[in-house]
């Protein structure tokens, strides 16, 4: 698995004041699998797909980043 980094990491705030810094598609997939709230809609599914595609070289890292940010908004998570 290729480890790709985004140009700008994303800090995500979760319930109870915890946060996670995500630096690329692999970390985004890990975050979605292990830390994501129950609110998992179509953008969550799309973000997982685009992150996998970026790791495989079929999409750009930045496309994965943008889709991941969209999924955080769908889940009502705060990003910095």
Automatic annotation (TrEMBL):
Entry superkingdom: Bacteria
UniProt cross-references to Pfam families, sorted A to Z: DUF982
Stated name of the protein: DUF982 domain-containing protein
Lineage: Bacteria, Pseudomonadati, Pseudomonadota, Alphaproteobacteria, Hyphomicrobiales
